[in-house]
Amino acid sequence: MKSQQIHLISRPTGLPTADNFKSVEITLPAPGQGEVLVKNTWMSVDPYMRPRMIDRESYIPPFQLDEVLEGGAIGEVIESNNSNFPVGTKVSHLSGWRTSFISDGTDLTVLPDIEVPEQLFLGTLGMPGLTAWAGLTKVIELKESDTIFVSAASGAVGSIVCQIAKLKGCKVIASVGSDEKAEFVKALGVDAVINYKKVDNLTEALEKAAPEGIDVYFENVGGEHLEAALNVMNDYGRIPVCGMISSYNADKPTPGPSNLFFINSKKLTVQGFIVIDYFDCFPEFVAQMANWMAEGKIKSEETIYHGLDNAVDAFIGLFEGKNKGKMLVKL
Amino acid sequence: MKSQQIHLISRPTGLPTADNFKSVEITLPAPGQGEVLVKNTWMSVDPYMRPRMIDRESYIPPFQLDEVLEGGAIGEVIESNNSNFPVGTKVSHLSGWRTSFISDGTDLTVLPDIEVPEQLFLGTLGMPGLTAWAGLTKVIELKESDTIFVSAASGAVGSIVCQIAKLKGCKVIASVGSDEKAEFVKALGVDAVINYKKVDNLTEALEKAAPEGIDVYFENVGGEHLEAALNVMNDYGRIPVCGMISSYNADKPTPGPSNLFFINSKKLTVQGFIVIDYFDCFPEFVAQMANWMAEGKIKSEETIYHGLDNAVDAFIGLFEGKNKGKMLVKL
């Protein structure tokens, strides 16, 4: 059995390019005792993978050069010597960036028995959905009276944050990077949308959208977005920090906002979090989210690239604003 | 009765200068019914007064031009038509920057009945002491196992933070701006001192002092100190943000650290606070602190300027690193 897989062959400086990656064909052995052969059907590309390409200690080890990349994926067991995973079992796992692989099962999770397209377990019912849900319900406790500002609001996490916040009764201000994305998040029911590429002054745009000030800033971006949020935050505001994508491709240090003193004078709470810490909430999350979806209260948007050969383009596209909702690769 | 008082006559750009202030003599009326005449004996100058000189909405109203400044002070009632404050009563209040004033008593607090020099109620037993104590016990919960980094460690707040942290059993790394101050904080028992003006790379100095990483950064300074702390913080580190003095005199926006993404990847909590919110803890604080002082476990250092005419120099001196411990003006 042949498997195609993508290796990282050099560490990107700035925006990654195709040259940083290489497609490699390997031959898989037959699955041994207790092992299964998994054929991947969908894989995820996510912004957090970019910092993993830097050789630096972090909450997750850096990607190694000349080894296959890793990332969330969905697959189907096509050969099995493990009774926990009979042939035909649909599984989620972190062995993306390859067409198939051998597993002893310890890294596989059988997909929950919910009648939805399987790729949703990489998006709204997977890591991005859990990130949005945990950020609003576990990291902070979102209140009905909150006005919330969401950056990267059309992304996999942001678009779910907007919808959960609306479900909770909040006023939601969304920031996106194109008019098309603005239409998309408007359709999700947000109260105001800012196309940050079209405004001269993000603080003024935010003040106009939220003259009452903002109580929560869901931080996906950093930089100017954080600066504007700090300017417009109300006292005791909360900033769950999910990511800071604006800095991920910086080839030299990019200075932070000049108004961090507002953290002090406005008595703000800035709280970094990583979804891994909330994996034990997955059953609670998935039950809630599946209900919302069944009731039509949460909608999922996907941007799909086709074939492993296009996975690198899909990944780079994350930083070029090419996705609405979850960026996926159909294998 | 004449009173001398200091007015703010122009808003400083950058470091304040004597020209921003004016000394004015006024004549006080005799105290009316229910009123008292207070003669100030000590006044406090504090870094937070600098941002109050900017005409900007904040947790405390900005100082008004051509009006007398305000600030913590200690005084003695020398004429009284109010039985709550007989002649001779020692009081603390916010009507500093003047030699005497008339009060109806609503803004006066009778000094606690503790046998200590009265000016301690402007320092270790006053606002700076409460700030240090609340920051370590209410804003975060300092644990014995914590390694804590304290910036502006020789200041009124920082020097108390260092000592409370040592009392709690923590390893304490202090940053100061002169060798003399380094000697002072060493004598307080801290485990390592960095004279930040003498090191090329604050991050490396901090890593050397705390190879195990830091769990808490008590933020008084901002800028490079925050950047170094973020670099060296352990996962789940906590940053109580008491102030950011490095930016107070900036005459143009000074960019923040370029490594704020560590808030996300290290899952840090950055928590701004203002001592006003902890005034209801004052009795608990003062009982605890007075005990520690009586047992010789907390030492107080003071830097004293003499006379209201030198109050402006004392205030400016705060930003020139001229104080060890509490900066006071003896009237």
UniProtKB/TrEMBL annotation, chains A, B:
Which molecular function GO terms apply here? oxidoreductase activity, acting on the CH-CH group of donors, NAD or NADP as acceptor
Would I find Oxidoreductase among this entry's keywords?
Answer: yes
Q: Which SUPFAM superfamilies match?
A: GroES-like (SSF50129), NAD(P)-binding Rossmann-fold domains (SSF51735)
Residues in the signal sequence: none
> The Enoyl reductase (ER) domain covers which part of the protein?
14-329
What is any Pfam family matched here?
A: ADH_N_2
Q: Does the keyword Phosphoprotein apply?
A: no
**UniProt keywords, alphabetically:** Oxidoreductase
State the source organism's domain of life: Bacteria
Its protein name is NADP-dependent oxidoreductase
Q: From which source organism is this entry?
A: Thalassotalea mangrovi
